[in-house]
Specification:
Layout lengths: L8 E5 L7 E8 L12 H14 L8 E5 L5 H17 L2 E9 L6 E3 L8 E3 L2 E3 L12 E2 L4 E2 L4 E2 H10 L2 E9 L6 H10 L4 E3 L12 E3 L16 E6 L9 E2 L4 E2 H15 L6 E5 H14 L1 E2 L2 E2 L7 E5 L2 H4 L3 E6 L5 E2 L2 E2 L3 E9 L4 E4 L2 E6 L2 E6 L1 E9 L4 E9 L5 E6 L1 E12 L2 E4 L4 E4 L2 E5 L3 E6 L1 E9 L2 E9 L5 E8 L17
Parallel strand pairs: 2-3, 2-4, 4-11, 11-14, 24-30, 31-38
Antiparallel strand pairs: 1-11, 5-6, 7-10, 8-9, 12-13, 14-20, 15-16, 17-21, 18-19, 22-23, 24-27, 25-26, 25-28, 28-29, 31-32, 31-35, 33-34, 33-36, 36-37
C-alpha cells in the first residue's frame, strides 16, 4: 500500500561546543483513527530506533519514539517544540527526525474531480488523528488547508530553530521529495534561493543556489551554520509504497539494509562511520538492485536527497558511527564464540530473521548465534506483522525471549441525528470474512497485523482494513445516520452511513 501522507528523515550538523549531544525523534503510524492503515510504518520506525540505540551509539533516553495512537497532532507538535526549547540551552551535535506514515502532495485538485486546476497546499504529514472529511479542508485562496494535519511551513520553521550542527530528516511517505520543504527551510533562515532540477551526476539529489544575478546563480550557499540532509522515499509527484515481499516501506528497507551491510564490513570490536554521502549512495544502489514483483524498486519510485545548503557541504556529514557485526578478531584471526537464543511467541509460527537473514526455524525456535548484539525480527506473512528487537548473545547464558503478539479491538457505534450523537445500534462484526461478534464486546486475542473488518447493520455493511498491534489497543467508532438525515458528501473512512 502507498504511504500517501508523509514520513520525514532529519540529519543535522556536528560541530558544537563541549556538552553537545545527539537526539532523535522518530514517529511511525500504521494505525489511523480515520485514514486507511499502513502495514509496516510503525515497525520500520521501531527497527530504526533499535539500530540507533544498540548499534549506533545513541542513549535510549535520547531517542524518543512515538507510535500509532500516541502520534496525535498535539503530541507531535509538543515533541518537536520540546526539542527546540531544550536545544537552546544544550545545543546538539546531530538531530535525527524520522516520520513513517501517510503524506500529502504539494498540490491538490479543488472543486469537483476534473473540473478545476490543482491548487497549492501546505498540508504535509498525517498524524494519527488526521481527518480527510470534506469539512476538514478549506481554501484560503492561495492554498488548500487542513488543520488536522502537520503543515509543511510549521515543521520547516521549527526544525530551522533547532540548535544543532547537523539535522537529518528521513521521510518515508508519499510525495515526500518536495523541494518546497527545502525552500521553506531556507526562507526561515533568511535566505532567498533558487532550486534546480535533479542532477544527472547524482540522481535524486537537488542542489540549492542563491537567486539574483544570473552570473552568481551557480554559487553555492556556504555561509550557513547548519547542515541538513533531507532524505525522502519518493519524488514530489510519486507514491511511496509498502511491499509485502520486503516487509517494509521501500526507503525504510533500503535504510536498514544499507546499515546492515555497513556493519558486516567491520568486526564487533570496531566501529564504522557512515556518512550521509555513503548512506545515500547505498540506498540508491539498493533501489536499483532490489526486486519487487520482478522489477527494480526504482521503477516504482526513486529516493530523493535535499542537501542544505548543498551536496558538497552535506555529503561528509556523519550519519551514524556503527558497531561491527563480524566476529571479534584476536591476534590477526577471527574467533567465534557462540551462544543460544530461545524464542517463543503467542501465537506460534512466526518466521525468524537474524540481522536481516531468514532462519530455517519458526517460533518456537532455539538458535545458535555468534556472541554479541543481533537484530532479531519475527514476521508472519498471514497478517504482515513484524516485531523487531535487539538481543545480546553470550556464551555463558542462553537468551530467552517470550513474546505476546496478540492485540485488542473494541468497536463502538453511534446514532447521528441533527449532528448529535447518541448510543447506536449493535453492529454485527466480521473479521477477514469470519464472524467475530457484536460491537458491544471487546476482543482480546487478535493476531497482530493487517485484517479486514466488516460492520453490518440491517441490509448495510462497511468494510475497512485495520491494523492490530500488541501494545496499542484499537478503538473504532462507527456513526450510523438515521434515515432522513442529510448524508455527508463523502463520509470519512470511520463512518457507517445507512
Amino acid at each position: 500500500m502507498s504511504r500517501c501522507l508523509l514520513l520525514a528523515l532529519l540529519l543535522m550538523l556536528r560541530c558544537l561546543p563541549a556538552g553537545a549531544a545527539d537526539r532523535a525523534l522518530l514517529i511511525g503510524i500504521s494505525q489511523y483513527a480515520e485514514l486507511e492503515g499502513l502495514r509496516y510504518a510503525d515497525a520500520d520506525v521501531k527497527t530504526f530506533s533499535q539500530i540507533l540505540v544498540d548499534f549506533g551509539g545513541y542513549s535510549r533516553s535520547d531517542v524518543t519514539v512515538v507510535l500509532n495512537a500516541e502520534a496525535t497532532k498535539e503530541r507531535i507538535t509538543a515533541e518537536v517544540g520540546r526539542i527546540v526549547r531544550e536545544s537552546r540551552s544544550t545545543p546538539l551535535d546531530t538531530f535525527i527526525f524520522m516520520f513513517a506514515g501517510h503524506g500529502m502532495p504539494s498540490r491538490m485538485e479543488v472543486g469537483r474531480p476534473g473540473s478545476s486546476a490543482a491548487q497549492r497546499t501546505n498540508i504535509f504529514i498525517a498524524p494519527f488523528d488526521a481527518s480527510t472529511a470534506p469539512e476538514a479542508f478549506y481554501s484560503t485562496g492561495d492554498e488548500i488547508v487542513n488543520e488536522t494535519f502537520v503543515n509543511r511551513a510549521w515543521l520547516a520553521k521549527q526544525l530551522a530553530e533547532i540548535k544543532a550542527k547537523s539535522i537529518i530528516i528521513i521521510v518515508d511517505s508519499c510525495y515526500s521529495g518536495t523541494e518546497a520543504f527545502g525552500d521553506l527551510y531556507f526562507e526561515n533562515l533568511g535566505y532567498t534561493v533558487r532550486s534546480f532540477d535533479y542532477g544527472g551526476q547524482r540522481p535524486g539529489v537537488r542542489e540549492y543556489r542563491r537567486a539574483g544575478d544570473p552570473q552568481q546563480r551557480d554559487a553555492p550557499v556556504k555561509d550557513m551554520q547548519q547542515r541538513i540532509a533531507y532524505l525522502a522515499s519518493s519524488r514530489r509527484d510519486q507514491l511511496s509504497v509498502e511491499y509485502e515481499e520486503l516487509g517494509h516501506g521501500a526507503l525504510s528497507y533500503c535504510l536498514s539494509e544499507a546499515i546492515r551491510r555497513a556493519r558486516e564490513s567491520v568486526h564487533q570490536d570496531e566501529r564504522r562511520d557512515l556518512s550521509v554521502g555513503d548512506l545515500y549512495s547505498s540506498i540508491t544502489a539498493l533501489f536499483r538492485e532490489t526486486k519487487v514483483k520482478g522489477r527494480a524498486l526504482q521503477e516504482f519510485h526513486q529516493p530523493v536527497l535535499l542537501p542544505i545548503p548543498n551536496y558538497a557541504e552535506v555529503r561528509d556529514l556523519p550519519f551514524l558511527s556503527l558497531t561491527g557485526a563480524k566476529g571479534k578478531e584476536i591476534h590477526g584471526g577471527e574467533i567465534e564464540r557462540r551462544g543460544e537464543l530461545q524464542l517463543s511467541s503467542d501465537p506460534p509460527g512466526f518466521e525468524v530473521y537474524i540481522d536481516g537473514a531468514k532462519q530455517d526455524q519458526v517460533t518456537p525456535a532455539t538458535l545458535s548465534l555468534q556472541e554479541g548484539k543481533h537484530l532479531v525480527e519475527l514476521y508472519t506473512p498471514a497478517t504482515g506483522y513484524r516485531y523487531t528487537f535487539a538481543v545480546d548473545i553470550s556464551e555463558a547464558t542462553p537468551a530467552i525471549e517470550e513474546l505476546f503478539l496478540l492485540g485488542r479491538l473494541r468497536v463502538a457505534s453511534f446514532w447521528i441525528s441533527d449532528g448529535r450523537k447518541s448510543v447506536g445500534p449493535v453492529l454485527d462484526l466480521y473479521l477477514d470474512g469470519r464472524p467475530l461478534g457484536k460491537s458491544d464486546q471487546r476482543f482480546d486475542s487478535i493476531v497482530a497485523g493487517t485484517h479486514t473488518l466488516e460492520a453490518r447493520y440491517a441490509n448495510y455493511s462497511r468494510k475497512r482494513r485495520i491494523e492490530i498491534r500488541p501494545d496499542s489497543p484499537l478503538v473504532l467508532n462507527y456513526s450510523v445516520i438515521r434515515e432522513g438525515a442529510p448524508a455527508p458528501r463523502r463520509p470519512g473512512p470511520g463512518s457507517l452511513v445507512f
